[in-house]
Amino acid sequence: MNESDQKPIIILEDVCKFFGDFQALRNINLQVKKGERVVVCGPSGSGKSTMIRCINRLEEHDSGKIFVDGRELTSAVKDIDAVRREVGMVFQSFNLFPHLTAINNLMLALKLVRKTKKSEAREIAMRFLERVHIPEQADKYPSQLSGGQQQRVAIARALCMNPEVMLFDEPTSALDPEMISEVLDVMTDLANEGMTMIVITHEMGFARNVADNIVFMDCGQIVEMKPTDEFFENPESERTKLFLEQIL
Amino acid sequence: MSDLIAWSDDYFWGAMVVLKIFAVSLVMAVAFGLIGATAKLSKSSIANKIASAYTIVFRGVPELLVILIFYYGSAITLTSIGRVFYPQTQFIDIAPFWAGAFAIALIVGSYATETFRGAFLGVDPGIVEAARALGLSNLHTFFYVRVPQMWRLALPSFGNHMLSLMKDTALISIIGLEEIVYVAEMATAVTLKPFTMYMIVALIYLSITTVITLVMMALEKHSNRHLEGAL
Ligand SMILES: Nc1ncnc2c1ncn2[C@@H]1O[C@H](COP(=O)(O)OP(=O)(O)OP(=O)(O)O)[C@@H](O)[C@H]1O
Ligand SMILES: [Mg+2]
């Protein structure tokens, strides 16, 4: 392993976030190295989404510091755009652009953000649709696709921007059970290719398979962060144990 | 019949004026509507207030008065400015075409502001977030994501606004624009056949509005194409 593999690509230092009087994040400290796969779990309302949404500044943190690839997240628009180009995000509810076909969903940001020529953008988009195994759906609109297919288009849309890091916010929670594995398979492939990933999920089978580290959150805090095996075999805190009992 | 033939050229050119004014004010009305809706939805309370004042005034005053006040108001202002530089100035006005187009664009724009505002609120915020997360700028997100989404929701009401806009053009003859109502007045004065002359105007308007309605139906179908064959 060389030096750059060791350097954290994402750093959160004492990050706090308030919604009005309510504190959603309490002094979050987290470091994610290049190529690392982190799974985040915890009960509903514990701040998981808020934490990863701070990383690409869909939410603004109130105090503390966040660095992505050495760039601090401040209110400077240029820095935010630069960070968003390096961080891909996949949402629970897919959030595809309904008025665009699958391939145009991929091409939009390539053309507008990456300034890629149309013909080249189409090639890139097609390559990524192949990678998530749905090139034949390229010209369909999102409403004509199944949930699993939509989520794979959404993953391809984030990937074709060539991000350094991928964030997943419960990517399979909105899916019918029979479609969960097709999405998890794509994510597992991605992990095996060395993508840096932060994944919020309750799919503990996937977590065991793929994650290097597991973060357990509760009440806006990181209660526990451990290498995967250790997390499942001897969780320290009572809250983690309780959570694992409920979910496994 | 011979009267009609004698005036057909004037009606034709009058109708061209109507179509031109419709096209020009439609573009302006859409722009005013987008700006107004964005101002109403913005976090700035000054922008909110200006936009509210705009919609209250232009939806609350009869169209005819807006046109008259706009035309004479601008003419009086321009004339008094003109007199500062050239004391012998008699009367300067904005061309009735532009004064009229601007006035009805402001009126229809105020209705469009409300329609667009409601439609923007109907856009799924998750989709806007996805655009931001992909690194699209505010401007790109607005024109490539929010407006196309909003548009689908706004189309049915916007179709009605287009019909009002078309019908409002009939009012502009009052400030001397030579469109078809104006032609009918002239023709009536000469032929003494008001019923025939105004009936022609009505038929011309009816054929234009029918075309607009058909175009709107096609547009609605087009904008909902992504829902066809939905699972
Ligand atoms: N925009 C907001 N305004 C006010 N409160 C919010 C907002 N977003 C989140 N919260 C609150 O912050 C807390 C953390 O929310 P968050 O969505 O991060 O939880 P989560 O761990 O992702 O939960 P879930 O598993 O249900 O998705 C919750 O109590 C939630 O009600
Ligand atoms: Mg969440």
Q: Would you spell out the secondary-structure blueprint of this structure?
A:
The complex is a heterodimer of chains A (248) and B (231).
Chain A: H1 3-6, E1 8-19, E2 22-33, E3 37-41, H2 48-55, E4 63-68, E5 71-72, H3 77-86, E6 87-90, H4 102-112, H5 118-131, H6 147-159, E7 165-169, H7 177-192, E8 196-200, H8 204-210, E9 213-218, E10 221-227, H9 228-233, H10 238-247
Helix pairs in contact in A: 4-5, 4-6, 5-6, 6-7
Chain B: H1 2-41, H2 45-60, H3 63-85, H4 96-121, H5 125-133, H6 138-168, H7 180-191, H8 194-223
Helix pairs in contact in B: 1-2, 1-4, 1-7, 2-4, 3-4, 4-6, 5-6, 6-8, 7-8
The complex binds adenosine-5'-triphosphate and magnesium ion.
The site of adenosine-5'-triphosphate has 11 residues of chain A, from strand 2 and helix 2.
Ends distance of chain A: 35 Å
Give the beta-strand count of chain B.
0
How would a crystallographer describe the biggest sheet of chain B? none
In N-to-C order, the SSE pattern of chain A is HEEEHEEHEHHHEHEHEEHH
Question: Radius of gyration of chain B over alpha carbons?
Answer: 21 Å
Report the portion of residues of chain A in β strands. 25-35%
CATH class assignment of chain B: Mainly Alpha
Explain how this protein is built:
The complex is a heterodimer of chains A (248) and B (231). Chain A has 248 residues and is of the alpha/beta class. Chain A is 40% helix and 26% strand. Chain A contains ten helices and ten strands. Chain A has helices at residues 3-6, 48-55, 77-86, 102-112, 118-131, 147-159, 177-192, 204-210, 228-233, 238-247; strands spanning 8-19, 22-33, 37-41, 63-68, 71-72, 87-90, 165-169, 196-200, 213-218, 221-227. Chain A has a six-stranded mixed sheet, sandwiched between helices. In chain A, strands 2-1-4-5 form a four-stranded antiparallel sheet. In chain A, helix 4 (102-112) crosses helix 5 (118-131), helix 4 runs parallel beside helix 6 and helix 6 packs parallel to helix 7 (177-192). Chain A starts with a helix and ends with a helix. With 231 residues, chain B is mainly alpha-helical. Chain B has a single domain (2-225), classed as Orthogonal Bundle (MetI-like fold), CATH 1.10.3720.10. Chain B is built from eight helices and no strands. Chain B has helices at 2-41, 45-60, 63-85, 96-121, 125-133, 138-168, 180-191, 194-223. Classes of the chains: A alpha/beta (248), B mainly alpha (231). At the A-B interface, helix 3, strand 6, helix 4 and helix 6 of A face helix 5 and helix 6 of B. The structure holds adenosine-5'-triphosphate and magnesium ion. Residues 19, 22, 24, 42, 44-50 of chain A line the site of adenosine-5'-triphosphate.
